[in-house]
Design goal:
331 residues, alpha+beta, Ribosomal Protein S5, domain 2, Alpha-Beta Plaits, 2 domains, seven-stranded mixed β-sheet, 13 strands, binds adenosine-5'-diphosphate, binds ligand DP6, binds cobalt (II) ion
C-alpha cells in the first residue's frame, strides 16, 4: 500500500485547487512517545502514543496555486531552495494530490517553535499543511481522515489536529486507515509545560532516520513496545485521576526509556547536550527537595518541564528562562 493509494479515493476529480485560507495547527509534546515504524511509507507506528498540544505554539500555512513547474516553499519569510530537504518533503506530500494537470504552489509556512530541533515542528508543520490541502482542493475530509492524511507527512502530525490530550491508536490494518489520533475528553487547567531551550538549531539526525537506526541496530529496542504499552495505560489513568505525580513520573520514565534505546543504537544516537543533563539534574534535585516537577524530551537536546500552576514560581526561580505554555489555560 502506498500513500497515493490511500489518498486517491479522497480526491475530487475535476476540482481545481484554489488559494487556501491560512491554517494553523499546534505543535505537540508526547508524554508516551512514538518511536519506530512498522511501515515506513505510511508512517505506521510500532506502539501507540499520547501527547498534549502546545496551544498557540505551532505552524501557520497557506497554499497559493502558481503558474510554475515547481513548488516554491517559504519558511518564516525566506524562500527555500527547491533542492533543500525541507522543500522536497513538502513537494512530495503535495504530489499526492496532483493529478493529470498538476498544479504547483507557493507554500508559505511559519513555525512559532524552532524548526527541526526536537520541538515537534514536523507535527505542527504537516498537520497545518494537511488542513491547507484539504481547503485548497476542497476535499471535505473529516477529523479522522485529516489525522490519517497528516500522518502520511509525519507520524506525530496525526496528533496535531487536536488540542489538549491526544491519543494516537496504532491500528492494525495494512492500509493504516485505523491508525489515527483522537482527543481525550479530559482537561487539566493549571497544567504547565516549560520549554527549556538548550539549543534551537537544527539537529544533526532527524527523527525519521533516528528512529530507523534505533529499530535496525539497538537490541534494547525490543523492550520498547512493552514499556510504551504499560506507560500509555498508566498515563491515561493518571490523567483521569488528575494524579500529577503519576503523570509526571510515567512521562519522564517513558522519555528516558526512549533515549536509552537511542543510545543503544549504532552508531550511538545521543540527542543530549551537557546542558540537557544539567537541566535534568536540576529537576531531580528539586524533586528530592519536594517540588513536583518532571520533564520529558523528544529527539533533540531541549527539555519540556511538566509542573502545575501552584509550583510555577518555584520552578521559574530555578529555570528563569523557560517559556511556559498552558495547554488548558490557567485556573
Ligand atoms: P522536529 O523535532 O522539529 O519535528 P523532525 O526531524 O521530526 O524534527 O522534522 C523536521 C522536518 O519537519 C523539517 O526538516 C521539515 O521537513 C519538516 N517541517 C518542519 N516544519 C515544517 C512546516 N512548517 N511545514 C512543513 N514541513 C515542516
Ligand atoms: C521523539 O513524527 O517526527 O518526537 O513520522 O518520521 O516524521 P516521522 O517522525 P516524527 O517522530 C517524532 C518522534 C518523537 C516522539 C513523538 O512525538 O511521539
Ligand atoms: Co518530528
Amino acid at each position: 500500500m502506498t500513500p497515493h493509494e490511500i489518498v486517491k479515493p479522497w480526491l475530487n476529480a475535476g476540482v481545481s485547487p484554489v488559494k487556501s485560507e491560512e491554517k494553523f495547527a499546534p505543535s505537540n509534546i508526547a508524554l508516551c512517545k512514538y518511536w519506530g515504524k512498522r511501515d515506513k511509507l505510511l508512517n505506521l507506528p510500532i506502539n501507540p502514543s499520547l501527547s498534549v498540544s502546545l496551544a498557540h505554539l505551532g505552524t501557520h500555512t497557506c497554499l497559493t496555486p502558481i503558474d510554475h513547474d515547481e513548488d516554491e516553499v517559504w519558511l518564516n519569510g525566506l524562500c527555500l531552495s527547491e533542492d533543500s530537504a525541507f522543500s522536497k518533503r513538502v513537494s512530495l506530500f503535495l504530489d499526492l494530490f496532483r493529478q493529470s494537470k498538476p498544479t504547483h504552489f507557493k507554500v508559505e509556512t511559519r513555525n512559532s517553535i524552532p524548526t527541526a530541533a526536537g520541538l515537534a515542528s514536523s507535527a505542527s508543520g504537516f498537520a497545518a499543511l494537511a488542513l491547507a490541502v484539504n481547503d485548497s482542493f476542497q476535499l471535505h475530509l473529516d477529523a479522522q481522515q485529516l489525522s490519517v492524511l497528516a500522518r502520511l507527512g509525519s507520524g506525530s502530525a496525526c496528533r496535531s489536529l487536536f488540542d489538549g490530550f491526544v491519543e494516537w491508536q496504532m491500528g492494525e490494518r495494512a492500509d493504516g486507515l485505523d491508525s489515527y489520533a483522537t482527543p481525550l475528553s479530559e482537561t487539566w487547567s493549571g497544567l504547565c509545560i516549560g520549554l527549556v531551550k538548550v539549543d534551537a538549531r537544527e539537529k544533526a539526525t532527524d527523527s525519521r532516520s533516528g528512529m530507523q537506526r534505533t529499530l535496525e541496530t539497538a537490541h534494547l529496542y525490543q523492550s520498547w513496545p512493552i514499556q510504551a504499552a504499560m506507560d500509555i495505560q498508566a498515563i491515561k489513568d493518571a490523567i483521569s485521576a488528575h494524579d500529577f505525580e503519576g503523570l509526571g513520573a510515567k512521562a519522564e520514565h517513558n522519555a528516558m526509556s526512549m533515549h536509552a534505546t537511542m543510545m543503544a543504537s549504532w552508531p550511538p544516537l545521543v540527542y543530549w547536550q551537557p546542558e540537557s543533563l544539567m537541566a535534568m539534574q536540576t529537576v531531580w534535585k528539586l524533586r528530592a527537595q519536594g517540588l513536583p516537577v518532571y520533564f520529558t524530551m523528544d529527539a533533540g537536546p531541549n527539555l519540556k518541564l511538566l509542573f502545575e500552576r501552584a509550583s510555577a514560581d518555584d520552578v521559574l526561580a530555578h529555570f528563569p528562562d523557560i517559556e511556559v505554555i498552558h495547554p488548558f489555560g490557567l485556573i
